[in-house]
């Protein structure tokens, strides 16, 4: 029975995408049903998962695909991928509940196939195929249903990500030339044996850039603000909630266990780039939060660069604490930033703008449900203890303060201090944004207009993420317990 769960997980949204693309059926009913069934399969996988053996691939499917080069249709889920599988299935279901357009629903379900496939693939070629499947659907979401500058934003997205994918593929081929296998399980068990240090460094550098584009790592992040700003709400939610995790997941899943020598050599550079990204994003967000032409959606987009910087810093420490911080940071960012983009989309739908100056203040007074959820999500995003955003940042800083053996303690201590300053700046720009939007007096322009608060369908889509932001913050073991043994295995 277990060997059908992962094919079913991928097959349901693929079938739904085909049906919605070819037949004139009710988009929301069919799409939501398919997405709910996919989430049910993900929950079934989690229910039957052996948490005591989280470092071992489970529900494995392994069949011959391209025997001439030993490429296999090899799927499995472990403690690293399981939380991301559940997060992806949940976010797609919540997005599906808000979509009316049949073709958009078809594109979102096709996107789900690529996202889930990336997290369960155990063959490098299969990983690459699923990694690429997401590009066209996301391009279409931005280019067809995006904002006024959607075409340039979509083109920038596809060019940057194709460049990263090309470098990633070359890195995989370097690994194959040295080992003769694409099997990710075998490569992880070998832990770099049989690959010379110079070959590891070459492959690791290619993968650093390739995964760095999607992460998004400074200075390869410049496609992200435009893509987020112009994407429709569901595109922004899935881009922030899942697609950015594919890059950091690649670092954790492939670079750390398969190329340990390269991971060690590149860790200082990765840590420095991560911290530069944190501080750069904070300064950009401060400028937006306090500036005369601040765009709420663009501010959340830039904040993603900073939050993902903490995930990259955790990876760079090559410690159990740092990697655990990266994994829970991935999940927390997906939950919180996904909620923030839902809320900003709700604001834009009602006020027809996301410009902070035009919105004015008093959102909490005029629309209590929408303004209250924006308050909760923003406080969670700034890393308040007791909410989900805190744990990833805290564990990344803890790992950086005491990095893996052989890494420069003075360098990482400096990075710890700079990243800690980033947490303070993050709190400043989120509080500045809340002061301007949530609090204060409702401006004259909106005082006399009747603007509806969150509808039932909105609350159905938004509330689960708010509950998770609190639940993970209060009980981080929801994520950390799942990934603990898997992280130990990654570090050998």
Helix content: over 70%
Mean pLDDT figure: 89
Tally of separate helices: 22
The main pleated sheet reads as: 2 strands, antiparallel
Order of helices and strands: HHEEHHHHHHHHHHHHHHHHHHHH
Low-confidence stretches: none
DSSP E strands, number: 2
Strand order of the largest sheet: 1-2
List the helices and strands and how they pair.
Layout: H1 5-22, H2 27-47, E1 58-66, E2 71-77, H3 82-96, H4 102-120, H5 124-133, H6 135-145, H7 150-179, H8 184-190, H9 197-214, H10 223-230, H11 233-258, H12 260-290, H13 296-317, H14 320-351, H15 356-359, H16 363-366, H17 368-381, H18 389-401, H19 409-437, H20 444-447, H21 456-474, H22 477-490
Antiparallel strand pairs: 1-2
Helix pairs in contact: 1-2, 1-4, 2-3, 2-4, 3-4, 3-11, 3-14, 4-5, 4-6, 4-11, 5-7, 6-7, 7-9, 7-10, 8-11, 9-11, 9-12, 10-13, 11-12, 11-13, 11-14, 12-13, 12-19, 13-14, 13-18, 13-19, 14-17, 14-18, 14-21, 14-22, 17-19, 17-21, 18-19
